[in-house]
From TrEMBL:
Active site residues per record: 189
Database matches in Pfam families: CAT
Top-level lineage group: Bacteria
Protein's UniProt name: Chloramphenicol acetyltransferase
Database matches in PANTHER family: CHLORAMPHENICOL ACETYLTRANSFERASE (PTHR38474:SF2), SLR0299 PROTEIN (PTHR38474)
GO function terms (MF aspect): chloramphenicol O-acetyltransferase activity
Organism: Candidatus Anaerostipes avistercoris
Amino acid sequence: MFRRIDQDRWERKEHYKYYTEALPCGYSVTVRLDVTHLYEQVKQKDLRFYPAFIACVSRAVNERKEFRMGKDAEGNPGIWDVVHPSYTIFHEDDHTFSDIWSFYDEDFRKCYENIVSDMETYKDCKGPKGKPGQPPNFYCISCVPWMDFTGYGTWVPGGEPSLFPIITFGKYTDDRGKKELSAALTISHAAADGYHTSMLFQDIQNILSEAVL
């Protein structure tokens, strides 16, 4: 469900107005995440890292309202009760990718199984959009498993920054058993400030470090 924000009582009313009217802008932040615990859990339980990572990040995203923002048909800002991950799958035969999406579930196993099932079902569907019916309450997450990057930026010439988060992560590195990867978040400044992004990455790291899959 989409819940329209009562802007008269909203602490971010002036910030939202400023960053959508006076200075429409977004930003990208890249951090390093320790994925050692998640990697070990995945290996012990014969799971797949990519869908497990998506499920963990989706939990963190859904726990903070700033990353569940959207607009209604009249352009009014609001908060979704839940947002679902929209993610990329890679086609080895022609080196193209497709976006597919899965329903988020608070239960890790259910969320993980939703993602794995959709990856298998739509693995041969080509084109930018592999799975039809994407709901309006989504956020974007993708992986660049061939590259360990230290910075990331994205933009839409002539467009507006997205209120929903766009998360991109890279290849994990191994330093004497400690595994880390870079993860970048891009979002409209109208939706979230540096504080909110810092708290989101802190939540993601806590989930990755403590998750029992």
